[in-house]
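Quick illustration for those who missed Monday's session on complexes.
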Amino acid sequence: MESPWYRVNSFEHYKQLYSQSVENPDKFWGDVAESFRWRKKWDSVCEWDFNQANISWFKNGKLNITENCLDRHLSENGDKVALIWEPNDPKEKYIQWTYRELHNRVCRFANVLKENGCKKGDVVAIYMPMIPELTVAVLACARIGAVHSVVFAGFSAHALADRINDAQAKMVLTSDGLYRGLKEIPVKRVVDEALLICSSVSKVVVVQRTSWAVKMKPGRDVWLHEELDKVDSDCPAEPMDSEDMLFILYTSGSTGKPKGIVHTCGGYMVYADFSFRNVFQYDENDIYWCTADIGWVTGHTYIVYGPLLSGATTVMFEGVPTYPDPGRFWQICDKYGVNQFYTAPTAIRALMAQGDEHVLSYSLDSLKVIGTVGEPINEEAWYWYHVHVGKERCPVVDTWWQTETGGIMISALGDHGPHKPTYAGYPLPGIQPVLLDGEGNEFSDSDKEGYLAIKHPWPSMLRTTYGDHQRCINTYFSHYNGYYFTGDGAKRDENGMFRIIGRVDDVINVSGHRFGTAEIEDAINRNPQVAESAVVGYPHDIKGQGIYAYVIVRDRIDDDEVLRAEIVETVVEEIGKIAKPDKIQLVSGLPKTRSGKIMRRILRKVAEGDTTNLGDTSTLLDPKIVDEITEGAI
Ligand code: PRX
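Prediction with adenosine-5'-monophosphate-propyl ester bound:
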């Protein structure tokens, strides 16, 4: 398998491709797209109008992404390993499937979907742990043109139900239970609870993972293994339009309700492959491992689609970094001879805190490129990763991107180009980021912070927010006319390398996962004892940001600790354990201006532990409340 022409092989080559991509984007992306299998060629490469958020790539082209992920590799690489699955328990046997085997499994699963009434355009919610059937399920949907909406299996029944209802999903694919570290979670029971308030779902397909007894609702619930016995492996891929929906993935924004980000087939395919090959510098026999969960966009693009489009061997891990001990990641790297390793700063910090001996007892000789994603990586974690994992030999690729961007936007490309701790680096070819000041003017001064925006479309950008296009326009395209607004602040050094500072909106990034402050407040407010709440982020050693909640309760007669525990429980029920507040301060009021707006600046400072200079508080309705809040800070 030869690398395609667009795989960058030096920093000079990067600069060349970058200028070609900016001078003539249509020609550049049209040429990249030529290397895929299309049923019918496109009429135009890119048509766009940022004001209306109308974007199309490879218009009227016909393709199926699974033909490009699987069928296309069969003649030359059918026997190459496509997927390695490492179970939670290191004593359990791993799974290794070749491209031919994966193809066969995807086709059979796709036939099960069809037999159970699923057709092109239907939305299928997938709520599954990190088992190999999850990858198969995603591809099976794509095979028949069903739109997958993967919901991270750590979300609560309530959060799952919201997502199912928003997309009016017809089917749910799930498992009986899950193992994660020492935890065992009855996944199917969560689905059952969610479906009590979802009327759109007519079928549930259940994968047997734990063999626990589960209730199966007659007529609705079926076991995957029983259904697979009834079908064969012949399933021609459904021809899709480039702009047909491939998937929906929910993500949080600054309002209470998560948005369904919509990605479409053609452009997403082209950019997933393009960015994967370039950032990770994947070579033919490499073993690549991304530790993310497929419930997030990183897993979609860089466990499933990017690697498989590129004909890579991709590793999938069911467990957690600290089970059975904090050397697990490194043990897996040595076990399979992993060459590219991609993880999150929060995992690096958690492992760093466990002591160096765990990483030092493994060789990690096979590693060539190591990457991070999800949040800014602090210098200490960067150096630890570089020295102890990369052995000062492997480039660290700090990849900046978002659910909305579909693929990596700013990053070093393997070892081609400079690496600087805490700097993501330069944009990939085809990506045109700019920094804007508060008035929306572009500036190029170095070391000046601004709003990060993108001024030209790229193939894998979001197309809409499901069911509410106006929300897409308002959130991303109306802050600054003519730009896609990322919601992040950034700056550039004197050489033009980008450093991402973090969110500039009311979004908190906890362990690389996004939550809107309003979303957590809404959850807290569902507790009947709560009158009002305000949530802010604060720096957290491991998670990057922690969740700090200020809560006004109706009647403070109960024990404060009991109250706090009940509030946490409400959040777990409404969203899931991942959104648990780290600190809850019970207060009698919030710092509000006369117009009723909460002065979050003050709450943020107090949460950060900095009460020295809270700024002007004279415009507050009740300035005394600030003293109470500072005195009671946790
Ligand atoms: O704030 C940025 C941060 O994560 C946000 C996107 O979150 P999500 O859509 O959940 O996707 C995460 C995985 C792609 C961004 O707006 N972020 C992501 N990567 C980085 C980052 N911040 C700094 N450096 C990064 N490398």
